[in-house]
Design brief:
Number of strands: 27
Strand content: 35-45%
Largest sheet: 5 strands, mixed
Distance between the termini: 19 Å
Strand order of the largest sheet: 6-5-9-10-11
Oligomer: single chain
Low-confidence stretches: 1-23
Radius of gyration: 23 Å
Helix content: under 10%
Amino acid sequence: MVTAASDETRDAMTEEVVEGVSKRGTVANCFCDADEVYVDGVCHPYPEGTVVHIRDEMYNPIIVLKNMTERRVIIKDLECDTENEVMMLNFSRGQFRLRDRGDIVLSEEAGEFDGLRIKDYCITHSLDEHRKRTWTVKVCVDPPKIPRCCPPGQAMKDNVCRPARTPEPLAPPTSADPYGPAISWPHIKTYEKPLNCSVESMKDLPLIPEVSYLASHTRGLVHIWNAEETDYKFQYRFDPKFCVDGRQNLNGSSSYSVKVCFESPMEQYHRLCTEKLCVRKCCALGEILDNVLHLCVPSSAAEFAPRMNTTS
């Protein structure tokens, strides 16, 4: 029997799971507890309670204010490794929201960072000049790490690295969502990651807004593209399942593309399931579906042995 695992498009944005327990409901505060505000370096009780914008993505698509006392709060100030080019940023009320999965998502008011998901954060509740409750968030954002297909001075031609004029440093546009502008990263890290496709064919995808783009995510850099060969609108590839190629044009501009190994579901079916019994599995081998996160997560108990009825 051959098992055909589902593609990452089921929701490639898998969130961090610690010891098999989802982080749903946990909020990181910088200094004070859920019923306190931070004033002049001291935490003060706040009888009205503290709140934050949040969306319960299981049931409620509307962003609402929810009381922090309903969440499990951990108190830990955030220190960003700025010496290694990690950015420390601050955003105010209205520029971010908390997801039930435990991470921060920046909103349209955050400008070019709109849609960016961040797992390293802490929230501070305080009082504004009118003694009204407000809140800010401090976040750490790692610079993108770009897996380049070829070494400097080379680019892909006929799926082989050959001498070419390449932009240095290799800095393809990256964003947080398919409709947002490219983020102005002060630093971008690259490393050589040749892509070898054994069974699947290599596909070349130019970086075109809304069609093929690179996005910064809590799991690292992700390539998202519109795959017309599938029933899903987007396909997701996380590092190291893709590499980036770049060329320096004669007019001084740069062109970028992404290489992926891809086989359409129909081609995969004919290759794996001809004269064999195939079973569609929701999660990859070694994973189970988390009913809280609605995502596939690793599990040592993820044995896959469906009962088969051999009678007609």
